[in-house]
Amino acid sequence: MATAIETWWPAIPAFLHTGLTNARTEGYNRLVKPVKRVACGFRNTENLRRRIRFHGARAQRASIGFTTARLPG
Questions:
Q1: What is the domain extent for residue 46?
Q2: pTM value?
Q3: What is the DSSP secondary-structure string of 16-56?
Q4: Could you tell me if residue 72 is inside a domain?
């Protein structure tokens, strides 16, 4: 624990002064990591980018309670 505090000590006063964190970036990384693991066989990087974007949009819709509208019938 002391080593971690020593490592992060310069960032602690910066956070207390500004209130800024990298939490959003870490959250996106958390969403992208599993997608990259599943898609490790993709040869086309554009397909990988599309899959990451689609997965991120799907997670965003789920977090705000978005549901798809159903057509009658």
A1: 23-59
A2: 0.46
A3: HHH---SHHHHHHHHHHHHHHHHTTT-S-HHHHHHHHHHHH
A4: no
Tokens of 13: 């006063």
Closest to 56 (Cα-Cα) out of 30, 31, 34, 26: 31
What is the residue type of 46?
A: E
SS3 for 45? helix
* 69 in any annotated domain: no
State pLDDT tens for residues 30-51.
888 887 777 767 778 887 778 7
Total domains in the fold of the chain = 1
Separation CA 17–CA 10 (nearest Å): 11
| Within-domain flag for 37 | yes
